[in-house]
Design brief:
The chain is of the alpha/beta class. 46% of the residues lie in helices and 9% in strands. The protein has 2 domains: 220 residues, 3-Layer(aba) Sandwich (Rossmann fold), CATH 3.40.50; 71 residues, 5' to 3' exonuclease, C-terminal subdomain (DNA polymerase, domain 1).
Length: 304
């Protein structure tokens, strides 16, 4: 059974940045907290998911997202880092990239597209070649990708947030509609985190009930006569915003990316190179999980 793990990389970077002391350094005065956090997460996620293949989706490094061209206020509400935090965050990128390189985890990016679009495209490509695809993230936007072959694994944040897997069945049980309808839900409700406007005055409950009754945005607008007057008025007034929001919320799944998944085999890396990198970074506590992974690889044992 082949199983591809796709890491929502920037989710894990921010999780590590805020989860470890920001002033954590090694003896060379390099900031290391975020790098250590990602390395630790790699071991934890391998143990949990037991993939055969592993890739990372990466944000566009040059051209801005097409969504900012479509809607200049897209993500305008996101809080900016303080200059000192931005320096600590960005200064670790060379070592983050080196970490992925020594593990031979391909870092996939495409100019003008966000990491979510890269992730969506790679998941779609992989679903025709792999037996199973697991996306690790806590980003609600990515839920729209769930289908019979694509699962979302949300890492836990003990003691408040338990780990969870989302399949089509568990998603519908939680949200009340099919995963692909998350796009229509965001079109109606909006998304403050990305400054997606939605329809003014429509919240979670109304958006959910409209989707449950009429199916999707087109179905809702085709049945306005059957919608309560107070909600109908809001939908009519904000129709353009609703359809703009649907464009902004839709993850692109067909970026022209050429990739051979053989390059993403989990154990296709040099354990000694990883060990040397950990020594350089002074990640002594990661020696044990690396040794365990090495033993299982060499002896063809289950991962954990």
């Amino acid at each position: 059974m082949s199983k591809l793990l796709i890491l929502d990389t920037f989710y894990f970077l921010h999780r590590s940045f805020h989860g470890y002391p920001k002033d954590l350094k090694n003896s060379k005065e390099e900031y290391t907290g975020m790098t250590f956090g990602l390395a630790k997460a790699i071991f934890e996620i391998i143990k949990e998911v037991e993939p055969t293949h592993f890739i990372c989706a990466w944000e566009s490094e040059e051209l801005p997202s097409f969504r900012k061209t479509l809607y200049p206020d897209y993500q305008k509400t996101r809080m900016q880092m303080e200059p000192d935090d931005e320096m600590v965050f960005s200064s670790q990128f060379p070592n983050i990239i080196k970490l992925l390189e020594v593990f031979n985890i391909p870092r996939i990016t495409s100019n003008g597209f966000e990491g979510d679009d890269v992730l969506g495209t790679m998941a779609t490509l992989a679903s025709s070649e792999m037996d199973e695809v697991v996306i690790s993230t806590s980003d609600q936007d990515l839920m729209q990708l769930i289908d019979d072959k694509i699962t979302i694994f949300r890492p836990g944040k003990p003691p408040f947030i338990p780990k969870a897997y989302f399949t089509p069945e568990t998603f519908k049980e939680k949200y009340g509609f099919e995963p692909v309808k998350m796009i229509d839900y965001k079109a109606l409700r909006g998304d403050p985190s990305d400054n997606i406007p939605g329809v003014k005055g429509i919240g979670e409950k109304t958006a959910t009930s409209l989707i449950q009754e009429f199916g999707d945005l087109d179905g809702i607008y085709a049945n306005l006569d059957n919608v309560k007057e107070v909600v109908r008025k809001k939908l009519i007034e904000d129709k353009d915003r609703a359809y703009l929001s649907k464009q902004l919320a839709t993850i692109i799944t067909n970026i022209p990316i050429e990739f051979t998944f053989d390059k993403a085999e989990l154990f296709d890396f040099n354990f000694d190179a990883v060990e040397k990198f950990f020594d350089k970074m002074e990640f002594k506590s990661l020696a044990k999980p690396l040794a365990e992974l090495k033993e299982r690889s060499f002896n063809n044992l289950p991962l954990f």
